[in-house]
Specification:
homodimer, alpha/beta, 5 strands
Amino acid sequence: MPYQRIVLAVDLTDESIKVANKAAAMCKAFSGQLVIIHVIESLNYAYGGDVPIDVSDIQEQLQTTAQQRMEVLVDQLDIPVESTIVTQGGIESEIHRVAEENNADLIVVGSHGRHGLALLLGSTANGVLHGAPCDVLAVRVHKSEA
Amino acid sequence: MPYQRIVLAVDLTDESIKVANKAAAMCKAFSGQLVIIHVIESLNYAYGGDVPIDVSDIQEQLQTTAQQRMEVLVDQLDIPVESTIVTQGGIESEIHRVAEENNADLIVVGSHGRHGLALLLGSTANGVLHGAPCDVLAVRVHKSEA
């Protein structure tokens, strides 16, 4: 059984359920366990620390919204989820860190989902691939028609 | 069952069996069918058509060697293989073409295997990701100790 510990990285847009369902199918097929992570790219990180306003309120609000969306996502899955993580920082580095800490043997990530909350999981799939501690499954998501 | 038609791209180095075994495990888990492709990067393609010698003999020899290595690889797998393809051209474009022609729902490719016959499947995983018609599983291969 090659994939026992699966880390699913989601941007929590509408497309995330599609990616999550693939991860869930992998978990079922290989009797694996699922950890779901969402990374809020910290504004300081995104803008090189040069943010002229206090962004802590915004970050807190992003965190709350993300937690709520994460719960909605988990409720839609037909498998139990071991844990969910909402964290802030650099997207690729946080995903790699969580994968390492969880001894993941597979990271599942959406590919080409470029709209939504942030520019989270677009070319991120490529970034995740570089330096990943394990295999990476890039699930193709198409832009929604809206 | 998300993955029914799996295209495995291999560089036919010693590491290929590791990648192939992951693809085989996916086939078994999802009752999928496996097509294996190896792309010989055509010398004309690699050097922009500006090759001053006749390379057809070399290409033919590469083709023969690749066919033999492909047979060895297939013999090592514990699942039946639907078909094997040894082709010449651009690596990413050939992999995408074969995936499309076979209605693949998953491409399996090695990641970071940078030594060997050619520079086949190193950063190729990234190249395969871009413009892939389906999901991509990048299997991490470590450089051999030798």
